[in-house]
């Protein structure tokens, strides 16, 4: 039976968000769609690195209606909560929200079970919170409660399928880059029936372990947190090809090949380099591969100029939020995407209205609107061309520190070349 909000949900999913993502990212690649079960209820378990962008990628690259479990904090104030409910988001309460609030999860989980019975799909971030690090963290047991609860409620007749998902970003915090969404092979909940019925904890632990291992194959994953800075520098910061960063087969193979070369000294040197780059807000990839002015840039220069001037004012509230208000960098892309989705078009509308009231011909106004929309994706590159980067400032203002960072980075460049040539 079709939901009351079906058209509203599809409007936001495909017309607004889907098209918005096509403009915001340079490329989105979907792998493993053939793994998605047909005519069966699905529980999607994606990794969670990039705030609500992760959910948007899953929602816009699959067909069924999805219900999303979202942290309860996002539902405040009430007007925001009502909107989120209308697009199939449901609040999940944590201990920090208070014991009485946590009790509300029972009602939410019951709703999830009913939706699964109807053949719908549920998305839950089993890592419980987001983190920009490229790795799978420990999974909470909330999703197992829904999975086993649904099958028990209907006497194991649902044939519920768990689909692990890996969302990989070439750059988490900006637009104009590449994303790869990987759908893993479905895991039937029925596989755990015998273990769950004989020992509930054993069944839960087995499901968590299997789903976690499946997710690790779908993302750039560093198992040992201590060596994360080293692996990130080698196979993310020093990788010139976006597609190799977001391809887990390539990235994880390289991570494994690095193991024999890891020493305590290299780990400490990587941590120190990471600390220096973060303190000075330096992008090591930008430092290693400064984007040169190309023929393409020359040809597009008038459009870059228009995009920069046209969007500069509208971007200032976004810049202020990111720089002064939002401390969690995992929200950067989300804020930028929302601005591109709503703030920029609002600004174009205001400019068009002013032009209209000034007596400008409608042909010119429509030309301005069309040009604004199609040059909006060029704003990221335009900013890079027309404003000095932190790297260029560092090189000019602190040349000794700049040379020190380059010197430190050369150690990892040599190690990377050695591993790749084996």
Task: Describe this protein with a few key phrases.
Glycerol-3-phosphate (1)-acyltransferase, alpha/beta, eight-stranded mixed beta sheet, single chain, 422 residues
Protein model, in words:
The protein has 3 domains: 6-216, Glycerol-3-phosphate (1)-acyltransferase (3-Layer(aba) Sandwich), CATH 3.40.1130; 225-290 and 398-420, no CATH class; 295-387, no CATH class. α3 (78-86) links the parallel β3 (66-71) and β4 (89-92). Strands 1, 2, 3, 4, 5, 6, 7 and 8 form an 8-stranded mixed sheet that branches. By secondary structure, it is an alpha/beta fold. The protein is globular, with a radius of gyration of 24 Å. The protein has 19 helices and 8 strands.
Oligomer: single chain
Reported for the largest beta sheet, the result is: 8 strands, mixed
The third-level CATH topology of the largest domain is Glycerol-3-phosphate (1)-acyltransferase
The rough form would be described as: globular
CATH class of the largest domain: Alpha Beta
> Structural class, from helix and strand content?
alpha/beta
Order of helices and strands: HEEHEHEHHEHEEEHHHHHHHHHHHHH
Calculate Rg over CA atoms.
24 Å
Helical segment tally?
19
Helix content range of the residues, please? 55-70%
Distance between the termini: 58 Å
- Overall pLDDT score: 93
Strand content: 5-15%
CATH superfamily of the largest domain: Glycerol-3-phosphate (1)-acyltransferase
CATH architectural name of the largest domain: 3-Layer(aba) Sandwich
């Amino acid at each position: 039976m079709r939901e009351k909000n079906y058209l509203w949900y599809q409007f936001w999913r495909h017309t607004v968000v889907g098209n918005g993502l096509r403009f915001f990212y340079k490329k989105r690649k979907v792998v493993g769609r053939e793994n998605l079960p047909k005519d069966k209820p699905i529980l999607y378990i994606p990794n969670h690195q990039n705030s609500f962008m992760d959910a948007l990628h899953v929602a816009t690259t699959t067909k069924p209606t999805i219900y999303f479990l979202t942290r309860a904090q996002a539902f405040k104030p009430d007007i925001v909560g009502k909107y989120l409910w209308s697009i199939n988001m449901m609040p999940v309460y944590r201990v920090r929200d208070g014991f009485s609030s946590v009790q509300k999860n029972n009602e939410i989980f019951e709703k999830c079970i009913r939706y699964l019975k109807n053949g719908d799909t549920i998305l839950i971030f089993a890592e419980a919170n987001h983190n920009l690090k490229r790795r799978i963290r420990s999974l909470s047991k909330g999703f197992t409660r829904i999975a086993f609860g649904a099958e028990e409620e209907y006497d194991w007749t649902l044939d519920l399928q768990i689909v692990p998902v890996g969302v990989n970003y070439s750059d988490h915090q900006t637009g104009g880059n590449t994303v790869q969404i990987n759908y893993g092979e479905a895991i039937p909940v029925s596989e755990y029936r015998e273990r769950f019925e004989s020992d509930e904890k054993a069944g839960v632990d087995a499901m968590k372990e299997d789903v976690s291992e499946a997710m690790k194959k779908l993302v750039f994953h560093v198992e040992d947190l201590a060596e994360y800075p080293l692996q990130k520098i080698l196979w993310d910061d020093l990788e010139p090809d976006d597609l190799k960063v977001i391809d887990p087969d390539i990235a994880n193979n390289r991570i494994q090949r690095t193991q024999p070369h890891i020493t305590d000294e290299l780990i400490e040197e990587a941590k120190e380099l990471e600390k220096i780059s973060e303190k000075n807000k330096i992008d090591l990839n930008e430092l290693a591969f400064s984007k040169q002015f190309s023929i393409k840039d020359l040809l597009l220069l008038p459009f870059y100029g228009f995009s920069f001037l046209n969007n500069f004012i509208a971007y200032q509230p976004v810049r202020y939020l990111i720089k002064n208000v939002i401390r969690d960098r995992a929200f950067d892309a989300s804020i930028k995407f929302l601005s591109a989705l709503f703030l920029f078009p609002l600004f174009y509308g205001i400019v068009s209205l002013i032009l209209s009231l000034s007596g400008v011909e409608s042909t010119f106004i429509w030309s301005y609107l069309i040009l604004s929309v199609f040059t909006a994706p060029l704003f990221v590159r335009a900013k890079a061309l027309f404003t000095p980067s932190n790297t260029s400032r560092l090189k000019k203002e602190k040349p000794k520190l700049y040379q020190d960072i380059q010197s430190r980075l050369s150690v990892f460049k040599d190690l990377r070349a050695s591993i790749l040539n084996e």
